[in-house]
C-alpha cells in the first residue's frame, strides 16, 4: 500500500498594499476630461457681464438704477414746470415764496383787497421817475440801516390802505431782501386773480356810493361770479343822471381794460329806451 502525502504549500509572495487614497482613485471610473483653453473662459465671463448690463438697463429693471427712464422723466417734468413758472425761477424760488407769503398774510388778516390795491400802487410807483429819484436818496444812504431804509420807503409810498404791506416791506429788510420788493409785487399781480379768485368790478354812478351800497354790490357780485372777493372800483359819472352801471369780466384785470360783461341800471339808459319805444331816438343828459 502506498501512503498519499499532500503536496507541500508553495511560498506566497507578499503583495504590497496601496494607500487608501490611491486605492479609491484606482477603483473610481476613469472619466476623460479636457482642459478649457483660457480664451473660452474669458469669452464666457464677457458674455455674463453683457447679459447683466442688459438686465440692468431693461425697462423691467428700471428700479435697480437711479438713471432709469423714470428718473429721467421726473427730471424733464421738473424742468418743464420751472419754465412754465412766470417768475422765471424754479417753483418755490425766492420771488414766488415771498409773493406767496404776502398773499397768505393778506388773507389771514382779511386784507386781500386793500393789499391788492397797495401792490398795484407800488407797482405803478416803480415806473414813476420822480418816485425813483427820491427813492435813490433813501436806499443809497450808507448811514441808514436796512430797516430804516424800509421805513423811508413806506413813508414815500404813502398813503397805503393796508397794514400788511408796510409790515411786509420791513420783513423784507430784515431778511436782507429789500431790493426784491419790485419783482415780488410784479409776481403778486401776475398770479393774483388766478390764485386768490379775486374779481375786479367797476361801478359808475351819478352820485357817490355809501359804504353800505358798496358792500351790498360786492356781496351780490361775489354770489354772481362765484368769487372769493371783489375788487370794487367806483367812479363818478354825472351824465348817468341817476342809477349806476356795473362792468366786469375784464380781459386785462389789472388795468381794467375791455370788460366782457356788464349791467346798465342808469336813468340815462332807461329814458333812452323809453323814447325809443315811442319811436323817438334821443340822447338823455344833464
Summarize the SSE layout with pairings.
Layout: H1 20-27, H2 38-57, H3 69-84, H4 94-108, H5 112-125, H6 129-139, H7 146-157, H8 164-174, H9 181-195, E1 198-205, H10 211-225, E2 229-236, E3 243-252, E4 257-266, H11 267-277
Parallel strand pairs: 1-2
Antiparallel strand pairs: 1-3, 3-4
What is the compact description of this entry?
This protein is α+β, with helices and mostly antiparallel strands. The chain has helices spanning 20-27, 38-57, 69-84, 94-108, 112-125, 129-139, 146-157, 164-174, 181-195, 211-225, 267-277, and strands at 198-205, 229-236, 243-252, 257-266. The protein contains eleven helices and four strands; from the N terminus they run H-H-H-H-H-H-H-H-H-E-H-E-E-E-H.
- How much beta, percentage-wise? 5-15%
Class by SSE composition: alpha+beta
Arithmetic mean pLDDT: 76
Strands of the widest sheet, in order across it, are: 2-1-3-4
Low-confidence stretches: 55-90
Rg, Cα atoms, Å: 46 Å
Number of helices: 11
Question: Overall 3D geometry?
Answer: extended
Main sheet?
4 strands, mixed
What does this molecule look like?
The structure is a single chain. Strand 3 and strand 4 form a beta hairpin. This protein has helices spanning 20-27, 38-57, 69-84, 94-108, 112-125, 129-139, 146-157, 164-174, 181-195, 211-225, 267-277, and strands at 198-205, 229-236, 243-252, 257-266. It has eleven helices and four strands, in the order H-H-H-H-H-H-H-H-H-E-H-E-E-E-H. It has 286 residues and is α+β, with helices and mostly antiparallel strands. Strands 2-1-3-4 form a four-stranded mixed beta sheet.
Amino acid at each position: 500500500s502506498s501512503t498519499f502525502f499532500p503536496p507541500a504549500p508553495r511560498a506566497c509572495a507578499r503583495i504590497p498594499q496601496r494607500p487608501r487614497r490611491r486605492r479609491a482613485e484606482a477603483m473610481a471610473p476613469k472619466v476623460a476630461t479636457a482642459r478649457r483653453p483660457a480664451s473660452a473662459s474669458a469669452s464666457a465671463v464677457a458674455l455674463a457681464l453683457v447679459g447683466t448690463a442688459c438686465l440692468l438697463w431693461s425697462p423691467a429693471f428700471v428700479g435697480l438704477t437711479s438713471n432709469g427712464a423714470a428718473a429721467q422723466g421726473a427730471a424733464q417734468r421738473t424742468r418743464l414746470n420751472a419754465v412754465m413758472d412766470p417768475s422765471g425761477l424754479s417753483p418755490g424760488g425766492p420771488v414766488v415764496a415771498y409773493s406767496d407769503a404776502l398773499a397768505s398774510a393778506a388773507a389771514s388778516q382779511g386784507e386781500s383787497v386793500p393789499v391788492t390795491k397797495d401792490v398795484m400802487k407800488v407797482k405803478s410807483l416803480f415806473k414813476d421817475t420822480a418816485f425813483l429819484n427820491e427813492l435813490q436818496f433813501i436806499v443809497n444812504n450808507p448811514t441808514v440801516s436796512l430797516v430804516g431804509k424800509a421805513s423811508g420807503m413806506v413813508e414815500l409810498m404813502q398813503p397805503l390802505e393796508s397794514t400788511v404791506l408796510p409790515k411786509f416791506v420791513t420783513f423784507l429788510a430784515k431778511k436782507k431782501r429789500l431790493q426784491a420788493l419790485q419783482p415780488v409785487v410784479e409776481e403778486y399781480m401776475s398770479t393774483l386773480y388766478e390764485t386768490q379768485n379775486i374779481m375786479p368790478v367797476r361801478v359808475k354812478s351819478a352820485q357817490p356810493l355809501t359804504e353800505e351800497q358798496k358792500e351790498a354790490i360786492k356781496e351780490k357780485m361775489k354770489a354772481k361770479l362765484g368769487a372769493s372777493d371783489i375788487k370794487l372800483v367806483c367812479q363818478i359819472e354825472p351824465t348817468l343822471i341817476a342809477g349806476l352801471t356795473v362792468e366786469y369780466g375784464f380781459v386785462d384785470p389789472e388795468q381794467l381794460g375791455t370788460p366782457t360783461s356788464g349791467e346798465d341800471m342808469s336813468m340815462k339808459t332807461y329814458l333812452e329806451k323809453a323814447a325809443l319805444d315811442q319811436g323817438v331816438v334821443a340822447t338823455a343828459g344833464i
